[in-house]
């Protein structure tokens, strides 16, 4: 089994698509204003945005995007005007993470976990 796609809700799909394109995803299906699918620049995973009339309440979904050169990526995104809730920080679970929200308020974590992503010292 492989993870093919993650879909997040948005009130304004076009605005969210523009944001995800700034992160480096490539638009492959444009059915705006109700749906769009993008592909990650590395690997085979896709990511989509679908229109909703009301955003979910509570913590919602957290989406993680991994990039080995995390600090450089975050700095480049800041230069493009993207605002972060938390800049790259080393975490106790041995990942380095930066946190932000997309235009719909979905939580994103840009991170680098390296070998510890799947093989932390406490792995079962």
Automatic annotation (TrEMBL):
Coiled coil: none annotated. Residues 2-113 form the VOC domain. It comes from the Bacteria. This is Glyoxalase-like domain-containing protein. It comes from Hymenobacter actinosclerus.
């Amino acid at each position: 089994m492989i993870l093919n796609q993650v879909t997040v809700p948005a009130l304004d799909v076009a605005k969210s698509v523009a944001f995800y394109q700034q992160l480096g995803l490539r638009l492959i299906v444009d059915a705006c204003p109700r749906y769009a699918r993008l592909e990650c620049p590395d690997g085979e995973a896709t990511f989509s945005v679908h229109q909703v009339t009301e955003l979910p309440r509570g913590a919602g979904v957290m989406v993680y995007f991994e990039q080995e050169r995390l600090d450089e990526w975050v700095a480049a995104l800041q230069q493009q005007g993207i605002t972060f809730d938390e800049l790259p920080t080393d975490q106790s679970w041995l990942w380095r993470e930066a946190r932000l929200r997309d235009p719909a308020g979905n939580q994103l974590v840009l991170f680098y976990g390296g070998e510890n992503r799947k093989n932390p010292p406490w792995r079962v």
